[in-house]
């Protein structure tokens, strides 16, 4: 199965406590200027489990092609 959007996986972007390290180290580095792309691989069962949620999120974000892609993948599994 091709990589899927990271909508419904535990790999989400979030802020974490630095426990004071932010004072000792610069928050800006080379990684701050590089585009990072994250994807996940789903099994057929995984897509069946999260497919409806992914389609709903894509609809809310007005990403119709993404929603349709998941819909097509789900229809090929049946």
Oligomer: single chain
- Report the structural category: mainly alpha
Query: What is the CATH class?
Result: Mainly Alpha
Task: Give the C-alpha Rg.
Answer: 17 Å
CATH topology: Single alpha-helices involved in coiled-coils or other helix-helix interfaces
Bulk shape:
elongated
**β-strand number:** 0
Q: Calculate the terminal CA-CA distance, rounded to whole Å.
A: 15 Å
Classify the beta-strand content into a percent band. Answer: under 5%
What is the typical, i.e. mean, pLDDT? Answer: 79
Number of helices: 3
SSE order, one letter for each helix or strand: HHH
List low-pLDDT spans: none
Number of domains: 1
- CATH architecture annotation: Up-down Bundle
Topology:
Elements: H1 21-24, H2 44-60, H3 64-77
Description of the structure:
The chain has 78 residues and is mainly α. It has a single domain (21-77), classed as Up-down Bundle (Single alpha-helices involved in coiled-coils or other helix-helix interfaces). The chain contains three helices and no strands. It has helices at 21-24, 44-60, 64-77. Helix 2 runs antiparallel to helix 3 (64-77). The two termini are 15 Å apart.
């Amino acid at each position: 199965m091709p990589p899927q959007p990271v909508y419904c996986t535990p790999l989400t972007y979030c802020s974490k406590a630095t426990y004071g390290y932010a004072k000792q180290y610069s928050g800006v580095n080379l990684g701050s200027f590089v585009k990072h792309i994250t994807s996940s691989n789903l099994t057929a069962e995984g897509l069946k489990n999260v497919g409806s949620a992914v389609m709903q999120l894509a609809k809310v974000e007005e990403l119709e092609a993404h929603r349709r892609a998941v819909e097509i993948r789900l229809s090929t599994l049946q």
